[in-house]
Here is the input.
Amino acid sequence: MKLTFKKVIWSTAIALLFFFQTIRASDAIDKLQEVYQKQGATSFSAKSGELLWHKKFNNRSCTTCHSSSVRSEGQHKRTGKVILPMAPSVNSKRLTNQKKVKKWFLRNCKWTFGRVCSAQEKGDILQWLKEQ
Amino acid sequence: MNKARWILGTFLLSSVMAFGFFGIVTASGFSSEDSREGNEYSGYQKIGSQITFKQDNLYNEECGACHLAYPPNLLPVQGWQNLMGGLEDHFGENAELDKETFAHISNYLEQNGLQRGKPSKMSKMLRNIPDVAPARITELPYFIRKHDEIPNRMVIRNPKVGSFSRCDSCHKGAAKGSFNEDMVSIPSFGRWSD
Here is the structure.
């Protein structure tokens, strides 16, 4: 059997498809967003997520510890510990572990806004963050 | 027949590529983090490599996310219990844990915290503790006595330190449970000896 051009193209295309499936960092996010939609959230808006990320509440915001850019390192306000960048484009381990995302939303929404975040708010933030 | 071979071949090739790539991504992610940690303490490994307590990965990951994962043998078991009883207001921060993680970490601290009659390299931290053990290492009488000669400008007003809670700012072997005075280096001030 001859190795035709068409066959090479075809197999390469399928190989690439598999290849890109594995590198999608946002699998965990997709699943979480599905859960949030079951909890009553509608479609998610990156713009709303970005606004909420920067929103000041009692002089606190996400940026207090995560710094003004999600592509830069942040610093824990109290302990001074370095927080690695949140943007998946510079830190590929971010947003890959559902359990971690849930834990930090719980803690950090309470610290920043003094309450838990709604399903809509969490989904919006993830929508924005995953594109960063 | 040939077509089936092509499909099988393509499938195998792409799976191998995908696995390989996944391997590279995870491997490079871990190695960069490891080397980062390694560099931080490498200069001290010869003197301070003796680990004085049993390490626990989950403890290091969960507690170490925000601050030094304090060696459990720096606080009496009772102090740890008080602390774990109030994680929702953990010195002003929310540090809630899920049930399983909570149980695992509580158990680790109970097994490895200080207890009267249980020998530990850090037993001296139990000296003169009040009936209700403090939940802060910095409030133990032994700790206070050991640090009372250090002027505020070197720690509390030192922007590179800020608090006595940041052991590892000055004690470079802190993560390994080594607090030997010879290894103290105060940022902007250097070595300390009294």
Notes: Helices of chain B lie at 2-42, 45-48, 57-63, 77-84, 99-112, 141-147, 167-170.
